[in-house]
């Protein structure tokens, strides 16, 4: 198991929160207009009674099929209920009422992702960006979806556009680094591979500048150093990742190997022990625990007697 084979990836999706006004208590029998049912739905939503909120919003759009805000809020409630097909249908109705309704398009894209419809999600995010050129969350999510679809060049372009709009987006820098790594994996040109690795490292460094506690960026930076043959840089980055997140089994595992490669047997032994303390009860780490025990046994058996 090499350090490079443990590379992690994270995809960022922003949470959508319903902005609903507070209204005086009402009852279904007292509501008579689409607006009243809409307000009643908001009240039930704020009271976390999702079933009644759905009933109220459905009555609102029955009375006014072009009531885009009611369709939008209905989509949010369906999303919370994990009824993704209904959520998608509600957002599509909101967009039929207003084709430039960016909030509904953005949530529709997320709903498509939840339903595993990445191509539809990509198209919806692209529409958001067309309508709202400064929608950095949509740009970031667009890049992530494009990367998942295998269009890495388009993902790089989306991340760069996001960064151009808001250079403080640590997640955009992080995902840009991952995209550069994937481009490097695909090229057979040695010089181009080295260039992309350099770009990858620079992107992770930028992510860390924006968020010093971004442990996954430190972790990926360590892997980038490993690929470049910079063991000292690799070790330093893993240490930083562990400062940000002490119980980070992947970083401990790779750091132990890095210490071994660096000839620091004592530190490797200590790190393997730390790894096993954390990983031995984690189902996701069981395939690596046996190797860690073997490495620890080998190091302790090889250690000179005091």
How far apart are the termini? 32 Å
Number of strands: 0
Structural class: mainly alpha
As a whole number of angstroms, the C-alpha radius of gyration is: 25 Å
Q: Return the string of H and E elements.
A: HHHHHHHHHHHHHHH
Strand content: under 5%
Q: Do you know the CATH architecture of one domain? A: Alpha Horseshoe
CATH class of one domain, anyone? Mainly Alpha
Give the overall silhouette.
elongated
CATH superfamily of one domain: Tetratricopeptide repeat domain
Largest sheet: none
Classify the fold: give the CATH topology of one domain.
Serine Threonine Protein Phosphatase 5, Tetratricopeptide repeat
Write up this protein:
By secondary structure, this protein is mainly alpha-helical. Among the domains are: 10-133, Serine Threonine Protein Phosphatase 5, Tetratricopeptide repeat (Alpha Horseshoe); 248-306, no CATH class. It has 15 helices and no strands. The protein is elongated, with a radius of gyration of 25 Å. It starts with 33 loop residues before the first helix and ends with a helix.
